[in-house]
Amino acid sequence: MLGSVPANVAYVAVDFVREDLGAALLAAGYDPRERTFFIWEGVTNYLNTIAVDATLRWIASHSGPASRLSFTYIHRGLLDGSARFPRSEPWVDAVQRAGEPFTFGLHPAELAVYLAERGLRLLSDVSTAEALKRYRPGVGDAATPPAFYRVALAEVQGRT
Q1: I need a surface site. Which of 16, 33, 88, 102 has the fewest CB within 10 A?
Q2: What is residue 121's three-state secondary structure?
Q3: Segments forming the whole domain that contains residue 112
């Protein structure tokens, strides 16, 4: 169960492949003229390229000035085998067994250009392991997520 949240925070459930993001947000009271902070966590790695592209483009073109997006993604090297990551096998095996394999990833070196082509400016990009060390120092190694899982922060271009 979710704890109490400020009145200006809304959780919106949407199937990014089958449903219209804009319609879902508008039905939840979204105002595209307002500055918005989107949190898209644990989603992109289960989507297809079309759904990720459409979502990023929608956010860039339907958000108020200085709106931002925080999202997680997996390093594409995990999917195509071009990179190796310690402790990745249990994660990959677990999502496979659950019937929800990783299907989409991005290469961190290409992220800024990828986002710019969709109307967003990359502000930061770190592995979740790096983020945990930065924001939760002292948390043990057992809690550290693998380096293939990343978190990025982007801002709508030209709307600052």
Answers
A1: 33
A2: strand
A3: 21-156
Q: Which two tokens stand for residue 151?
A: 């978190």
> How many domains, the chain?
1
Q: Is 121 among the domain residues?
A: yes
CB 41 within 8 A of CB 22: no
Q: How far apart are CA 72 and CA 136, in angstroms?
A: 17
Residue type, 42: G
Which pTM does this prediction carry? 0.89
Name the amino acid, one letter, at 13.
Answer: A
Report the 10 Å Cβ neighbour count for 31: 11
Reading the chain (160 residues) residue by residue, the pLDDT tens digits are 456 778 888 899 999 999 999 999 999 999 999 999 999 999 999 999 999 999 999 999 999 989 999 999 999 999 999 999 988 999 999 999 999 999 999 999 999 999 999 999 999 999 988 888 888 777 655 566 788 999 999 999 975 4
Q: Any idea what the CATH number is for the domain that residue 131 is in?
A: 3.40.50.150
User: How many alpha carbons fall within 13 Å on the CB side of residue 128?
Assistant: 18
